[in-house]
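Homework help board

Subject: predicted structure for assignment chain

Our instructor gave us this sequence and asked us to write out the predicted structure in token form, then describe one feature. I got the tokens but I'm not sure how to describe them. Can anyone check?
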Amino acid sequence: MSEEQQQIETILKTQKIHAERIKLLEARVPEYPKLRVPDYTSDLQMLRQSIERFLASNHQKNMDDTMLQIREIVSHIPNTINVKNHHHFAKATKRVVIAFLVLITCLAFTIWLAYYFYKH
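My token output:
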């Protein structure tokens, strides 16, 4: 029983110590670094002026003219474009295909034969 009480006492002491440390940390005022925020007023004024110039310009008419030019160019493109392709096999390819077909046939026959002997 005395060991348990000693353990409880040590736990209470550590809790008390931690509580004091937490109070100290809560009371401490953090020191933040001083930040230098640059002055962007001239940049923002230039940006506002350029936006106002863009809005004052005839950008909608310019976009319409550009779209008409694009439509005209697209209308001149033919719907189908003839492409000349010539697909052919090399001379050796025919032999390779035949060899593979023979091998596949032999494999199928072997599997059938194994199945046949397995059943009978």
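Reply (TA_rk): Your tokens look well-formed. For the description, you could write something like this. The chain has a mean pLDDT of 86. That's the kind of observation they're looking for.
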